Amino acid sequence: MPRPKGSPNKTTKEVKELLTNILSNHMDDLDDCIAALPAHRKVDALLKLAAMILPRPQIEQNPFMQEWIEDEQPFVIHINDLHTTAQC
Q: DSSP character for 83?
């Protein structure tokens, strides 16, 4: 039987709490590891971590937005690390 609409997912909540505890216990290690990464990998890691923390934006459902989404080309950022010591 599916859970009622709008009710919290118990498993998802438990997994998020477990991951939060693991990350909290390794924050110093994580900070050092990210700092040691090349610039392009550092940006990638920080964006992936941000995606886990920040809420996903909700796109308003209207014909204009739907047309814009379907026609829009992907937004791509290329970061070339030429053995520089760029700080982010």
A: S
The helix/strand/coil state of 42 is: helix
pTM above 0.70, yes or no: no
- pLDDT bracket for residue 88 (50, 70, 90): very low
Q: Which residues of 57-88 are buried (b: 16+ CB within 10 A; e: fewer)?
A: eeeeeeeeeeeeeeeeeeeeeeeeeeeeeeee
- pLDDT tens-digit profile of 28-43? 888 888 889 999 899 9
Q: Cα separation of 51 and 47, whole Å?
A: 6
* Per-residue H/E/C for the chain: CCCCCCCCCHHHHHHHHHHHHHHHHCHHHHHHHHHHCCHHHHHHHHHHHHHHHCCCCCCCCCHHHHHHHHHCCCCCCCCCCCCCCCCC
